[in-house]
Amino acid sequence: MTEQTKLSVLCSLFTWTQRSKSAAKKRAKFRKFLDAFCTDHNFFPAVRLLLPNLDRERGSYGLKESVLATSLIDALGISRDSPDALRLLNWRKGGAATGPTAGNFALVASEVLQRRQGTASGGLTIRELNELLDRLASAENRAEKILVLSTLIQKTNAQEMKWIIMIILKDLKLGISEKSIFHEFHPDAEDLFNVTCDLKLVCEKLRDRNQRHKRQDIEVGKAVRPQLAKRVANATEAWKKGDPLAPLLFNIVVEGLTGLMRTAISKNMFSSYQVGSQKEDVNILQYADDTLFFGAVTTDNVRVLKSILRCFEMVSGLKINYAKSHCGCIGKSEGWCRDAAQFLNYSQLDIPFSYLGIPVGTSSKSWSVWQPIIRKFEAKLAKWKQRCLSMGGRITLINSGLTALPIYLLSFFRIPKKVVHKIVSIQRNFLWGGGIEANKIPWVNWDTVCLPKNKGGLGIKDLIKFNEALLGKWGWELVNNQNQLWARILLSKYGGWNALLFGRNSGDLSHWWKDLETVFQQQDSNSINNNLRWKVGNGVKIRFWKDKWRDDDLTLQDKYPTLYQMSTQQNSPINLMGHFVEDRWDWKINWRRNFFDHQIDMVAAFMAEIDDVHIHRSSMDILTWRDDPSGSYSTKSVYNLLKDAGNIVTEDSASKIIWNLKIPPRAIAFSWRLFQNRLPTKANLRRRMSAMSCSLAPKLGVYDHCLCNFLFCISVHLLHGKDVVVECKFDGDRIQIHKNGTEIHFFSRQVRMNFIDHSEYAHAMSEIIIQNVLVDRCILDGEMLVWDTSLKPKAARDGLDSDRQWLDVAFDILYFGDTSLIHQTLKERHEILCKIVRPVKGRLEILVPNAGINSHISSGEPCWSFIAHNVDEVERFFKETIENRDEGIVLKDHSSKWEPSDRSGKWLKLKPEYIQAGSDLDVLIIGGYYGSGRRGGEVAQFLVGLAERPSPNTHPKQFISFCRVGTGLSDDELDAVVTKLKPYFRKYEYPKKRPPSFYQVTNHSKERPDVWVDSPEKSIILSITSDIRTIESEVFSAPYSLRFPRIDRVRYDKAWYECLDVQSFIELVHSSNGTTQRDTEYGSKQDSKPKRSKSSTRGEKKNLSIVPSHLIQTDVSSIKGGSLIFSNMMFCILKNLVSYYLIKLSDEVFEEMSNAREVLLAKANSPFNYMKAGS
After folding, report:
1. What pLDDT shows up at residue 97?
2. Distance between CA atoms of 362 and 360, rounded to whole angstroms?
3. Class of domain 7-205
């Protein structure tokens, strides 16, 4: 029945799933579809359409968006110059032609097809669709593909064709993960797919959802999802302790305790405690593993409570911790309370007491409530005062640690002014003196210190304003959660939200409630109450005249005072100001008298203003916060509002620039004091009549945060007694080699297709594997690299020539003989790997500690992998990888088992780009590329360029394309850049028009932008960073480009002509051995330890520069001068000579030159075609 199901049914499922916001409802809908339409248990035809990226039974279509666009144009038989054809070809570009669907090819194609297809479904079934897609994938030429597309267009409508196109592109964008689909299909589906990568096998083996499948092991010849390494820079605690079911079981048991209490109350055996005028019942509350009972102070209640607790212990098997249990009574004698506690076997609770850090039964104004906070402040500072923190460090500590200490009290009580003064005094002394000692000079007024950073302050929180913002949250929650128990209690005791907002309170009020009223009933323009707005629902809560429920900031009372005085309903809510006539709301406003003629226009304007309001019978009135886009109350937005009240200080551009600089905090603090003119200069010291003294300078050196995180994670492993294997991370293809006799497969993981068999390796590597892997059946996990026999490096594959050959480095084994090894430890797998693989130098190597490829290394030289015994060894090894331009390092738990598709932290990786070891390069935006998806129709990436070095005292006139970059900025930052440049974007109509004359480009298809910036003077500089290793550029005009570039920040502070010039970039590359590495502690001169000689393979690798060999200058340091026969002569040594003879000839020339130098000269026609010359 599955194959006979209509495609329209599947498309309806896709559409509903895409629109639904609930993940649970999406999963339920998918389950319902399988149950209804897959009654024959033939799931594969439908599931392969739901997960097209995992279907390996059908080959590649060879149709990406650009090719699919031209194929659809031909299938429709329309001209390439027609508007619809141009929409398909320019699907990424926005504007009137493409419309709001720009960036989504399937939607653009659907709109084009809608004009040519009927709205009725063509009746295509799932079986027929799969047959047509099989024909499309197997089509040998373009004409056959167009024929299949024509058939699909004839048998479908535009909506169905949209989903077919998304299936062809293997990206359905349903908003439901493959993990969720697998789980709904069968609980064991994901696990089986991970070890087989075979969707058809999963659908055939797991036909019955109710029958569990025994976990299948891996098999030779079936691709396995690889175990993945987790990025260490973002790692959290890797190992979780305890039984994961324990919290769930506890919750179930405690529900039983609640049930016992409800039964006792329903049978009038237990009397609840009643609060306030409305007698709100409170009996049992639960927080985490605490249970609180409330009841009337009677002997019967005490007896019933003991019976409930004994029953709970017997039924659940849990024991109550009586040592931590307390009983307190109000309104009874101390003797009665003592007897009750003794009867329950509890200790007596003395009032006042503290629960969860909040004092109960005492005044919040009492100094004893806040004294623990003061002590915490002082204890925190005592740890730091002797450590000579820089001012930048003290600012960071105040902003993060000190202000956070009293947060739980600040969110509940109004802080007394004497406590504020004490805390500010501690903060001030710590900021200016590094401790809590007295007589510190406060160089800047504290009000200025508390200003935002962009207004000249340090951004330290104003405790009073912050306290008010936190307290305001209670009022907000009270209005929007009226049905919750705590809100009902406040309603019964104090009058609830009405009393809080409008002051309708009476009787004896607690200090806490008075504090809330004080915060909410302030009447200035920046108060909390004046920035609340009502969203009208049924109108029950909103006062028609006195509340703010219109779009402006005035109430109707303030806007129409005359009409308000004439109204007889001055305090009435909206729902009493009219009634429903069927489903339409009709206003019924009562006036004291008729209106005069001159008042008719005012009444008409008034009625026109309220007529467009929609009253809803079923929805509730909602209180919203004006200063937040979502309408929700946020402490941050309220604090900013209160802080700006009465503050006339404008934004300080200099301060904004200072805080955006990527410099150490101590440097920022120094710059801030400099701009404030508050440095301890002689003049400033004299002005304060202070004795001049010299303080100890802080110790230099800022350790990179990401590296510290990394080393901390390593420490976690080492401290837990685990052996850690540290390996060099090679820059090649991750390959699983499956050997089954003479049958060899080379599987790799791809972005969309999770598996692909690389037949291109078979010719060069199969025979090597057959002869040197000493078992008939096995699976090896490793990296496929290129071995250059002339220089002997290992590098990523760029194509092969006569001097290069494939090299596989195996670092793990997953299968051996007829046995899976994934349940064995890494140590055991390494031992087996060494036994069954016979290394072949330059063709097949194994990467294990103390063996394999490490055996080629002489004593005292750096190795490729080792077992780390301390953090220093790992740090040293990582520095070596940066110096050698390796991709990074990987750490593996030596006792870990191999888990498919696992990224739990058993393997950790660190690359140079994670710690931003590369230089920040200032480049100019010269073009842009339209995005797709939510960035469709807008520029989402930039083509950036380097300047051609200008003559002295002039600006650059030429800019050379350098790289393409789009990541690193937030959506708001990207929108800001695009908005500034949009007036200067000019569409690039290739090949009709040429690029602007001041841009040097290659016009490579990967370089060609969608828009140009029409003039460099209008552009913006970006600071970009990347992997420290550069690459030779074929796509861009610059001789080198970047790997994985990303935007670090936008340099609005720099003029367009201050961007990096190409000559300076080349000098940076040459001076750092083909990288963009900045001067850091990695490989810097600060390391006093002598570097180990590296004459082995690894050492020769270090000498391999990414700079082309014809640009590497000859090392003549060991050559002695001979004669002067070549003085005043120039020699050009051409690059097409064999490397050995080139070096030999260079040496001979330099021998005969007394004053020789080697330079790089440019040809006249192009500044980037270099040749070697000696003079």
Report:
1. 54
2. 6
3. mainly alpha
Q: Which of 179-193, 762-776, 820-834 has the lowest mean pLDDT?
A: 179-193
DSSP string, 560-611: -HHHHHHBS-TT-BGGGSEEEETTEEEE---BSSPPPGGGHHHHHHHHHHHH
How would CATH label the architecture of 707-914? Answer: 2-Layer Sandwich (3.30)
Compute the CA torsion angle 342, 347, 351, 355 (nearest 10 deg): -140
Q: Taking the CB of residue 874, how many other CB atoms lie within 10 A of it?
A: 23
C-alpha span between 434 and 387 (Å, rounded): 9
Q: What are phi and psi of 127, to 5 degrees?
A: -65, -45
Q: Is 729 one of the catalytic residues?
A: yes
- Check 385, 455, 729, 1102 and give the catalytic one: 729
Token output for 1029: 């290793």
The answer to whether 680 and 697 are in contact (CB under 8 A) is: no
pLDDT at 1123 over 70: no
Q: Give residues with Cβ within 8 angstroms of 136, minimum separation 6.
A: 61, 63, 145, 148, 149, 168
What lies within 8 Å, CB to CB, of 1089 at 6+ separation is none
* Residue 449 near residue 431 (C-beta atoms within 8 A): yes
The three-state secondary structure class of 304 is: helix
Q: What is the pLDDT of residues 180-232, one digit of tens each?
A: 888 888 888 888 887 788 888 888 888 777 777 776 666 676 666 666 666 55
What does the block give as tokens for 550?
């219109």
Show the 3-state SS of 242-289: CCCCHHHHHHHHHHHHHHHHHHHHHCCCCCCEEECCCCEEECEEEECC
* Distance (Å, whole) CA 1041 – CA 1034: 9
Q: What is the largest CA-CA distance in the chain?
A: 121
Rounded Cα gap, residues 858 and 877, in angstroms: 17
User: Can you read off the two tokens belonging to residue 1066?
Assistant: 């080349």
Tell me the C-alpha distance between 999 and 926, whole Å: 8
Whether the CB-CB separation of 1042 and 1024 falls below 8 Å is answered with yes
**Mean of pLDDT values over 1043-1069:** 86
pTM, 2 dp:
0.43
Q: What is the pLDDT of residue 870?
A: 75
Our CA dihedral for 305, 311, 314, 317, rounded to 10 degrees, sits at -60
Please tell me whether the peptide bond between 352 and the residue prior to it is cis, using omega within 30 degrees of 0.
Answer: yes
Number of Cβ atoms within 10 Å of the Cβ of 614: 9
Tokens for 1164?
Answer: 């006249």
Q: Which CATH superfamily is domain 918-1071 in?
A: Nucleic acid-binding proteins (2.40.50.140)
The Cα–Cα gap between 929 and 940 comes to 6
Distance between CA 84 and CA 91 in Å, rounded? 10
Please, are residues 163 and 14 in contact by the beta-carbon 8 Å criterion? yes
**What's the one-letter identity of residue 195?**
V
Please name the residue ranges forming H helices in 954-1026. 971-981
H helical segments located in 935-1029 = 971-981
DSSP code at position 837: B
Phi, psi of 809 (to 5 degrees): -105, 105
How far apart are the C-alpha atoms of 687 and 667, rounded to whole Å?
Answer: 25
**CA angle 189–192–195, rounded 5-degree value:** 145
The neighbour count for residue 695, using CB atoms within 10 Å, is: 9
Copy the structure tokens of residue 868.
Answer: 């780390």
Cβ-proximal residues to 958 (8 Å cutoff; 6+ apart), any chain? 947, 948, 998, 999, 1000
Least confident of 53-67, 127-141, 645-659: 645-659
- In the chain, where are the structural domains located? 7-205, 247-359, 463-534+621-648, 537-615, 707-914, 918-1071, 1108-1174
As to burial, measured by CB atoms within 10 angstroms (0-12 exposed, 13-18 middle, 19+ buried), residue 297 is middle
Q: What is the mean pLDDT of residues 778-789?
A: 86
- Spatial separation of the C-alpha atoms in residues 232 and 711, rounded to whole Å: 9
Are domains 7-205 and 707-914 of this chain identical in fold? no
